[in-house]
Amino acid sequence: MLALVFPGQGSQRPGMGQPWRDTSSWSVVDHLSDVTGRDLGALLTDADADTLKATRNSQIATFTLSLVILDAARQAAPPITDPAAIAGHSLGEYSALVAAGALTAEDGVRLVAERGEAMQTAADASPGTMAAVLGLDPDGVAKACQATEGARVANDNAPGQIVIAATPAGVAAASEKAQELGAKRVMPLPVGGAFHSPLMAPAQARLDVAIAAATFHAPTAPVVANVDAQPHGDPVEWSDLLSRQLTSPVRWRECLLELKQLGATTFVELGPGTELSGMVKRTVDGAIRANVATPADLPGLSELLVGP
Fold first, then answer.
1. H or E segment and range at residue 258
2. Which residues contact 172 (CB under 8 A, 6 or more apart)?
3. How many C-beta atoms lie closer than 10 Å to residue 295's C-beta?
4. Closest CA to 258 of 132, 87, 117
5. Both 121 and 139 in a single domain?
6. How far is CA 157 from CA 3, 68, 166, 203, in A?
7. What are φ and ψ of residue 15, in 5° steps?
8. Fewest C-beta in 10 Å: which of 110, 209, 232, 257?
9. Could you tell me if residue 249 is inside a domain?
10. pLDDT (tens digit, 9 = 90+) per residue, 281-296?
């Protein structure tokens, strides 16, 4: 059975939309540009790394490209249909809700635009950053954060990969402590704030207004939420889940295990990069994995879905 997973902020890269420009799915970019009044095509093809690092740009660009790729996968032969379950990593949760029919693409992109602006404002007021701690267990990372004022576990991504968030000084101190406790490596992440931490609290009110203006529908497949790693089919629940997600840790490792519990044996990542596919490999024993980031990946996806 098939699970769809969608990446979040940090997976963006310059020119990531260029391979899709001459495909029919590029119409998604034109439509969402009209909805938001932004030139999303330029973000996907022309923006440099510094421009894309800005939260207001990286989130909407990643979301838009994920929907382009979803559209292409649905037109492939055979098409992606009827996944057993869906999940998205942080920002990717919005892509997942659109894929499940719980949000329209229009409401989704409006929410993502407001989320990006709200988080950008919060990050500008209280600068922060994030880093991935590799090779240290959750208890060890938690101890490193507890020893550093303001540091938090932001993402539990996979065994041996946990992300921390804080001010730049806080991340540096917690990183040093994590290495003292046995971390193999600590990698700074290309993000513009301390996401999923209390430093994002000032963005809450603005995001809540945007969430209240959106209409949620019953999903066509279970969507596993970041904040509790549980599937939610009641559309009423998603307003609170998305609001809480802003300052709560992303329990991605547990989300992947829950997708497995729901029957998923094949995990397909739709969006820029391959980071989630790597997390699946580390977390779900025996999982079949595929990712679609460019049109060149579609034939491999088709072969996987058709089988031997």
1. helix 252-261
2. none
3. 15
4. 87
5. no
6. 17, 25, 17, 24
7. 75, 15
8. 209
9. yes
10. 999 999 999 999 999 9
Question: Rounded distance, CA 4 to CA 19, Å?
Answer: 21
Same domain, 27 and 142: no
Residue 25 has pLDDT above 90, yes or no: yes
Q: Is residue 193 part of a domain?
A: no
What's the CATH number where 168 sits?
A: 3.30.70.250
SS3 assignment, position 5: strand
- Tell me whether residue 284 is exposed, middle or buried, using C-beta atoms within 10 angstroms of its C-beta: 0 to 12, 13 to 18, 19 or more: buried
Active site residues: 90, 196
Domain of 179 in residue numbering reads as: 129-188
CATH number of the domain to which 244 belongs: 3.40.366.10
Are residues 142 and 174 both part of a single domain?
yes
Which among 7, 9, 68 has a CA at the least distance from the CA of 41? 68
Can you give the pLDDT at residue 308?
56
Do 226 and 110 belong to one domain? Answer: yes
Question: In this predicted structure, what is the pLDDT of residue 302?
Answer: 85
Per-residue model confidence as pLDDT tens digits over 139-176:
999 999 999 989 999 999 999 999 999 999 999 999 99
- Asked, as a colleague might, if the bond just before 78 is cis with ω within 30 of 0, I would say yes
